[in-house]
Structures are given as structure tokens and as C-alpha cells.
Amino acid sequence: MAEDFLPLNGTDHVELYVGNAKQSAYYYQMAWGYELIAYSGPETGVRDRASYVLQQGKIRLVLTSAMHPDSEITRHVAQHGDGVKFLAIWVDDAEKSFYETMSRGAKAHTQPTVMSDQFGEVKISAIHTYGDTVHKFVERKNYKGAFLPGYSPAKSSVKTTSVGLKHVDHCVGNVELGRMNEWVKFYEDVMGFKLLITFDDSDISTEYSALMSKVVSNGNGYIKFPINEPADGKRKSQIEEYIEFYHGAGVQHVAIATDDIITTVTELRNRGVEFLHVPEVYYEEVWDRVGKINEDVATIKKLNILVDRDDEGYLLQLFTKPVQDRPTVFFEIIQRCGAKSFGKGNFKALFEAIEREQALRGNL
Questions:
Q1: Which residues of 197-228 are buried (b: 16+ CB within 10 A; e: fewer)?
Q2: Which single residue of 4, 226, 344, 351 has CA 20 to 30 Å from 243?
Q3: How would DSSP label each residue in 112-136?
Q4: 223 vs 189: CA distance, rounded Å
Q5: What is the widest separation between alpha-carbon atoms in the chain?
Q6: pLDDT: is 19 or 278 the higher one?
Q7: 148 has pLDDT over 70
């Protein structure tokens, strides 16, 4: 077996560029139960931005806003709205990760750089991927600080209560029509990922719209990136709507794992997080397809949770509505009970739910 030239330990953090990081941080603390662990801004000697680092389980979200109009962050928010800028990956060797990917055709974003403070040093490097999205390689084995040099430890000023989120399961990218295979090839050639699953428009379509999707994964399976592109349909697909409002390719959603989706979703709903609505009819046929599960069927239906099964087991999943005004980025909550797949059996129900929302926005 070929040696993995790009060993990855998992997701280090996901950084979003947002219009108002302070208020976004409040939302993710109060509604989602993330805890504030670090801060960077004028008070820490950083003059051009403010960043709040939030943590729950192994998930770190970084929310960053610009201080001035003439800034890459300001331009990113003006074009895309609140959106994911960095999908940062935890590695043992940021320099090697950079040069290995560069030698295979990556486009450089950040040359290998050492950042240090009294807690040690972190090495970072970064390469471009689809749209304005960037993969940052983070090597932190010689660091004991709260997050990264330049950040001060911080504590939530409000009481935060975890909703049971564990780690990032996968991150989904939407790319322009005709460009999915190009980006799949990028992950295969440049980052050594393998193609895991392919879905075409016969798998993922409704009366109105369709999409194509391929899932790539790194060697140990810790990092999985489904990549979607639109397919021909009678009306505008959700991928086209995303690209129109995001003004380009970008991260569509981040899927977050929980061990107890019933508790997680109950809490999130109680705190005002809005989810896509799945109609009653979905539950009339789902149990014939999925069979027995350990959770209470009536509760699953009441919470509107989707269920699917593959050869390895079953999974439970639910998708939020977009978490900003533009119909772009959202989150998925997923509980895997053995299943390794991505809920193929739910695509039609999910699409129809998204199309109902699109119709309300006048975008179908």
C-alpha cells in the first residue's frame, strides 16, 4: 500500500468570516452551547480584526470580523455574507504538508510560518481550494496555549450549556456547474484523498431539481469532503441558489456529530435553532426502509429527525435552516449508529424540504 504523503489527524478548526463576530459568538454560545475559550483583537495587539474561538467537544469554531473597510475580511463578507474561510486541518508537520501538496499542484495561500508566544510555537501553512476557501495546515505539538499565538484565553460571560456536539463529521462544498470532477481530482491528486461515494441525479433529484455529489476522504477517514454541483432540473436547484447568493463556490454545510441526537436537537429547538421541516408522509414509509432502531420512533417523528440505513448500521440526521439571512451556510446534526454513509435515502425528503424554503424566498 502506498504511503500516505499527507497524514491528517482531523479538523483543527473552522473559521468563518462574519459581519459581526461579537454577536455571532453570542449566538453560538447561547443557542448552540459553545464555550468561548480564546480571543484575538485590539486588546491582544491585533489591530485589523477581532476573532472569537468557541469550543464544544473537539469542535473549534473561529468567528472573525474586520475592523476596517479595506480588508480581505470585509470584502469576503461583502461578497459571500457570513461564510467559511478556513477549513483548518490538524497535522504533525505543517511544512511537509505544504510542500507535498505544492509539489502536486496546490496553489499557495500561506508559506510555512512559525508563530510563537510564552506557551510555545505553532507552525501553519495554507493552500487554496474551491472558491475563496482555504485549507490551513496547523501543527501544534509544541504548543500549550488556549488556541494559537496572538490569542488570549477567554471565558464566556454568559452561562453556556453544551448540547452534546462531539466533532466535525464532514464538510460539504458546493461548486459551479461542471466543476465537481475538477475539485474531486484536486483532492485525489494534490491531497491524496480517495473517492468514497458518487451520487448522481438519479440518486438525488425531485420533480424540480437535481444535483451531483462525490465524497472524498483522506487515508484514515478522519476528513471527509462531499462536493456538490448542480444538475439539470426544471427549476433552480438548491446548489444554484447557494452559488447565486454566496456569489461563488464555498462551504455549504458543516456536519457535526452527536452521540444523542434526541437530546441535542431537543435542546437546539428549545433555544430557537430552526431546522428544515420534513412532512408527515416521510414517516409513513421510512420504517419499512430502515427497520428497527434503538431510539423511540414517536420522538424521532416529533423532532422531525431523518433516518437512513446502510450495510453497516443506521444514522439519524437533521439539517438546520441557513444560519444567516442569505440562503447559504447551514449545519447538519448527525448521529451514526454504525452507518458510514451520508443518508442517501433521505436526499429526496431533504430536497423537497429545501425546495419549500426556496419557494418561500421566491428562488425556486
A1: bebebebbbbebbbbbbbbbbbbeebbbbbbb
A2: 344
A3: EEEEEETTEEEEEEEEE-STT-EEE
A4: 16
A5: 60
A6: 19
A7: yes
In angstroms, how far is CA 100 from the centroid of its own chain? 25
pLDDT score for 107: 98
Q: What is the pLDDT of residues 270-280, one digit of tens each?
A: 999 999 998 88
Enclosing H/E stretch for 11: strand 10-17
Element (H, E) at 215: strand 210-217
CA dihedral 347, 353, 355, 361 (to 10 degrees): -150
SS3 295: coil
Q: Give the residue from 130, 133, 137 showing the smallest Cα distance to 101.
A: 137
E strand or H helix at 180, and its extent? Answer: helix 180-191
> What are 32's three cell numbers?
448552540
Whether the CA torsion 32, 246, 215, 234 is positive or negative: it is positive
Dihedrals φ, ψ of 5, to 5°?
-75, -10
**For residue 91, with 0-12 CB atoms within 10 Å meaning exposed, 13-18 middle and 19 or more buried, which class applies?**
buried
In DSSP notation, 50-61 reads EEEEEEETTEEE
Q: Which cell numbers hold the place of 309?
A: 440505513
33 in Cβ contact with 267 (< 8 Å): yes
Domains in the chain, start-ordered, CATH in brackets? 10-153 (3.10.180.10), 165-361 (3.10.180.10)
85: which 3 cell numbers?
474561510
With contact defined as beta carbons under 8 Å apart, do 233 and 355 qualify?
A: no
Chain-centroid distance, C-alpha 260: 19
pLDDT digits (tens, 9 = 90+) for 41-90: 999 999 999 999 999 999 999 999 999 999 999 999 999 999 999 999 99
> For residue 204, what pLDDT is reported?
60
- Among 178, 188, 323, which Cα is nearest to 239's? 178
Taking 3-state DSSP, the helix, strand and coil percentages for the chain, each rounded to the nearest 5, stand at: 25, 35, 35
327 contacts 245 by C-beta, under 8 angstroms = yes
What pLDDT, in 10s, does the model give residues 179-190? 999 999 999 999
Residue for cell digits 468514497? 196
